[in-house]
Each structure stands twice: as C-alpha cells, then as structure tokens.
UniProtKB/TrEMBL annotation:
Annotated family: Belongs to the pseudouridine synthase TruB family. Type 1 subfamily.
Gene3D superfamilies: Pseudouridine synthase (3.30.2350.10), PUA domain (2.30.130.10)
InterPro entries linked: PsdUridine_synth_cat_dom_sf (IPR020103), PsdUridine_synth_N (IPR002501), PUA-like_sf (IPR015947), PUA_sf (IPR036974), tRNA_psdUridine_synth_TruB (IPR014780), tRNA_sdUridine_synth_fam1_C (IPR015240), TruB_C (IPR032819)
Protein's name according to its UniProt entry: tRNA pseudouridine synthase B
tRNA pseudouridylate synthase B C-terminal domain location: 180-223
Keywords assigned by UniProt, alphabetized: Isomerase, tRNA processing
PANTHER family the UniProt entry points to: PSEUDOURIDYLATE SYNTHASE TRUB1 (PTHR13767:SF2), TRNA-PSEUDOURIDINE SYNTHASE (PTHR13767)
Residue ranges of every copy of the tRNA pseudouridine synthase II TruB subfamily 1 C-terminal domain listed in the record: 241-294
An annotated Gene Ontology molecular function: RNA binding
Residue numbers annotated as active site: D47 (nucleophile)
Domain Pseudouridine synthase II N-terminal, chain residue ranges per copy: 32-179
Its biological purpose: Responsible for synthesis of pseudouridine from uracil-55 in the psi GC loop of transfer RNAs.
C-alpha cells in the first residue's frame, strides 16, 4: 500500500533556479514535495524554455505572492538572426528565412530604439486571454487575432556578445514585457528576422539568481537542511517601507481595524513585537488600513 504524503506548515520564500524544459507549476509542485509544504504558490510564471529565478512562496508568504508580479525583471538571452519562428523562440516553427548581412555597428545602432518606453504587441503564443480563452490555444488552431500594442519600459538593453548570426543581451524591463516579442522586433529592425534560442531570468525586483538553489541540490540534502534556503515571507516586500506598531495597535491591525500612523502615505509592511503582521496602506489622514494580514500564532 502506498503511503500518503504528510504535509506540514512551512512559511517562507524559496528562490528557485528553474531548469529549462520544466513548467513553472511543475517546478512549484516538485519544490513543494521536497519541503512537504501544505500550501504553496509562485509569483508569476517562467516559460518552459527559460531557466533562472523563480521565487516560490510557502504558507504565509503566499499572501504576498502578487506583490512581486509588478516588479521589474532582468534577463540574459541569446538571439539567432536569420530565422523567424511563429512562437518567437526555438520551440516554434520557422516561418521566415533571411540572409544575415549586418555587422556589429548596425546591431549597436538598432538597440537604442528599444530602450526606454516602447510599444509592444503581445505574441499570439502567450497566456493572455480573449473571450476567456488563452491566445496560445487559438494560435495552436492556426487562428491569429489582432492584438493591441501596449507600453512597456526597457530599463536596460545591453549587448553582451555578438558573433556572426547570434548575439547575447542583458535586458531589464517592466512588468508585461515579452522578450520573445523584443527579439522578433529587433530582427525586423535588422531586416532579417530573429528568435530566442535561450532565456535566463537573473533578477526579480531585488531578488537575485546568485541567491537561488536548484531542485537537484535540494533533493540531494536532507529535509532539515532545506529550510536553510527559505527566506522570511517579508522578502517579497523589501521594496516597501516598514511601519512598526505597539502591541495593542498590532492586535487591532491583524483583526482588520484601522490604526493611526505618522508614516508616509502609501503601501507598507507592518510589524509589531519583531513579527511581520502583513501589508498595509497609509492614507492622507494618517490611517493605516490592513490590506493583507498574517493571523496570530
């Protein structure tokens, strides 16, 4: 008889170095099993083709997983020029072949137009929905619909290497940026087409790939040692100012009540007695409103 998994309460943030070929949900479930975590979630998906930083949340940290969705992301990517695919990456079908007859000077001259605020058309092979159906499902049926261009911000677009028909780029960008679309647009600007052959996410907001761990490493160590890789739940909130409350005000906060605060208006992470209470927001009248709270233990 097969024994059932014994789940336990685990609270914290795991910075996972996701391998290629694995979906974000599959990576999440594998990590969840390694920690025997009763509750788990992620902070946004990373394509199976891509590797790199995938912050995972366990227990209390899942309450703040959406707060990292709006964070800037940083990638290192490789492009192959001369071939355009229907997905914008190496998993797709080649739809155009062109000779590559530009050099380093032409590539460097093309990059500035993709820095700063730009308008970008989302790819058909994306999880965006139209009438409740993901665009990639329509694309697999051979259906292409018009998509509205939207503004994203490319904070950094730096050439790391160029050799013949390939280049490597470092890209720091705002929420909603599609690196596959950026590659496709750069290929169009150089009149030869291009697609991604590799993509690695190296940062999400203040979180860095240097602090991440692989599933293989976690599997190779005992469960007690794995907890050493967990960050506190407020690792997801470090970009917000901290507000510290007295014990009584803290109890009122976790029960959903307004408390007074002289903090600067805006969102904040809230503590009392050296414990994270949750996420709050201060209004212009000095009222601290609970937005998401962690219940008393």
């Amino acid at each position: 008889m097969t024994s059932r998994k014994s789940w336990r309460r685990v609270d914290g943030v795991l910075l996972l170095d996701k391998p290629t070929g694995l979906s974000s949900n599959s990576a999440l479930q594998a990590a969840r099993r390694l920690f025997s975590a009763a509750k788990a979630g992620h902070t946004g998906t990373l394509d199976p083709l891509a590797s790199g930083l995938l912050p995972l949340c366990f227990g209390d940290a899942t309450k703040f997983s959406t707060d990292l969705l709006a964070a800037d992301k940083t990638y290192e990517t490789e492009l192959l020029f001369g071939l355009r695919t229907d997905t914008g990456d190496a998993d797709g079908t080649v739809v155009m072949r062109c000779p590559v007859d530009f050099g380093l000077a032409e590539l460097e001259a093309a990059l500035p137009r993709f820095r700063g605020p730009i308008r970008q058309v989302p790819p058909m092979y994306s999880a965006l929905k139209r009438d409740g159906k993901p665009l990639y499902e329509l694309a697999r049926q051979g259906i292409e619909i018009e998509r509205e261009a939207r503004e994203v911000i490319i904070h950094e677009l730096r050439l790391l290497d160029f050799s013949g028909d390939r280049c490597r780029l470092r890209i720091s960008c705002s929420k909603g940026t599609y690196i596959r679309s950026l590659a496709d647009d750069l290929g169009a600007a150089l009149a030869c087409g291009a697609h991604l052959t590799a993509l690695r996410r190296v940062a999400v907001g203040p979180l860095q790939i240097a602090d991440a761990v692989t599933l293989d490493h976690l599997a190779a160590i005992v469960e007690e040692d794995r907890t050493g890789w967990l960050l506190a739940p407020d690792a997801l909130l470090q970009s917000l100012p901290a507000v510290y409350l007295e014990e009584l005000a803290g109890r009122r906060f976790v029960h959903g009540n307004l408390v007074s605060s002289d903090a600067v208006p805006g969102r904040c992470r809230v503590y009392a007695e050296n414990r994270l209470l949750g996420l709050g927001e201060v209004d212009g009248q000095g009222n601290l409103q609970p937005r998401r709270v962690i219940g008393a233990r």
